[in-house]
């Protein structure tokens, strides 16, 4: 990863403009500049870590606490009916900014969007044995 500050670090430092809505010692949140819905907010660790797995545990906990606290506040401000929360974790998943960020996207009845199940391509046809193997392998990794 480059040592140049990410665009999100530049927003947090005030180097470039951003609509910051939340800030603690470890986490910040600001409105997405190209919102999918009114109130679309990005929750980020202040320090740039590229992937979820790179985050220190305490920062990951702080980030989730911020998502949990902000979601109802955002819903009430934009009068949303629900929220989709998601992370594009890695470029194959659509991550463009190499600085972990949680998308908090307000949702509205009849907004024409889909559930999180719509993000992947065609569904795999997995046998029970294949499912069991995958589950066992995931469980066995420390
Ligand atoms: P992702 O594809 O998950 O990496 O999402 C990156 C998000 O960052 C996109 O939704 C962009 O609209 C958003 N974004 C990019 N630049 C800025 C910026 N300067 N201020 C706020 N949001 C931004």
Keywords:
3 helices, binds adenosine monophosphate, alpha+beta, single chain, five-stranded antiparallel β-sheet, 142 residues, 5 strands, HIT family, subunit A
Explain what you see.
A five-stranded antiparallel beta sheet has the order 1-2-3-5-4, sandwiched between helices. It has three helices and five strands. The chain has 142 residues and is an alpha+beta fold. The relative contact order is 0.16. The protein has one domain: HIT-like (HIT family, subunit A), CATH 3.30.428.10. A hairpin with a 3-residue loop joins strand 1 and strand 2.
Distance between the termini: 26 Å
Named at the architecture level, the CATH assignment is: 2-Layer Sandwich
Tell me the fraction of residues in β-strands, as a range.
15-25%
Unreliable residue stretches: none
Mean pLDDT: 97
Overall helicity:
25-40%
- Give the count of structural domains: 1
Give the names of the bound compounds: adenosine monophosphate
Number of E-type strands: 5
The topology string of helices and strands comes to HEEEHEEH
Q: How are the strands of the largest sheet arranged? A: 1-2-3-5-4
- CATH superfamily caption: HIT-like
> Which CATH class?
Alpha Beta
Count the DSSP helices.
3
Largest sheet: 5 strands, antiparallel
| CA gyration radius, whole angstroms | 17 Å
Layout of SSEs?
Blueprint: H1 7-13, E1 20-23, E2 27-31, E3 41-45, H2 57-78, E4 82-86, E5 102-107, H3 128-140
Antiparallel strand pairs: 1-2, 2-3, 3-5, 4-5
């Amino acid at each position: 990863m480059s040592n140049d500050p990410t665009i999100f670090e530049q927003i947090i430092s005030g180097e470039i403009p951003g609509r910051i809505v939340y800030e603690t010692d470890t986490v910040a949140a600001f409105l997405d500049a190209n919102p999918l819905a009114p109130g679309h907010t990005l929750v980020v660790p202040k320090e740039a870590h590229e992937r979820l797995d790179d985050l220190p545990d305490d920062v990951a906990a702080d980030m989730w606490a911020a998502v949990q606290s902000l979601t109802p506040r955002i819903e009430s401000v934009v009068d949303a009916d629900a929220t989709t929360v998601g992370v594009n974790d890695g470029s194959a998943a659509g991550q463009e900014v190499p600085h972990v960020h949680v998308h908090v996207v307000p949702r509205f009845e009849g907004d024409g969007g889909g559930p999180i199940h719509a993000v992947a391509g065609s569904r795999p046809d997995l046998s029970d044995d294949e499912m069991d193997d995958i589950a066992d392998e995931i469980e066995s990794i420390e």
